[in-house]
Specification:
By secondary structure, the chain is an alpha+beta fold. The chain has 2 domains: 97 residues, no CATH class; 51 residues, no CATH class. It is built from 5 helices and 8 strands. The strands form 4 sheets. It has a two-stranded antiparallel ribbon. A two-stranded antiparallel sheet has the order 3-4. A two-stranded parallel sheet has the order 5-6. Strand 1 and strand 2 form a beta hairpin. It holds the Pfam family DUF6451.
Amino acid sequence: MMTSAFEGKHGIQWTAQNQLDDLDFADDLALLSHTHEHMHTKTASVAVVSASVGLSIHNGKTKVLKYNTEKSNPITLETVEDVESFTYLGSIIDEQESSAADEKARIGKATTAFLQLQIIWNSKQLSNNINVKIFNTNVKTVSSTVRR
């Protein structure tokens, strides 16, 4: 679908040599743009290509996150909610351009996973080796992407 909607460059300049393209996974799509006008064009293109195969953009699930902008014109003809943060594939993206909220959420999830296994940690029937394996598979995996 994304290939059909755009020709040429369609992401944002990430570093001097690298460009970050729009993100799509299954039925989720994150469009990236440096300008409001380009975002409007991209959204319209996705709507046209989607309509050609019987799909439509769900305005209730569509959000706009703006960085360093004061532009308030709508991206689409229908009203789309402006948000300060959203979750995409389990990661929190916010307008602060930092990973602090995402790290805090992952640490919270790891803490919850650890506390839910309190009965196992207190069990005298399981060896430390088994407890470490349980910890690695149930707690560490939740927080494995937290960077310090």
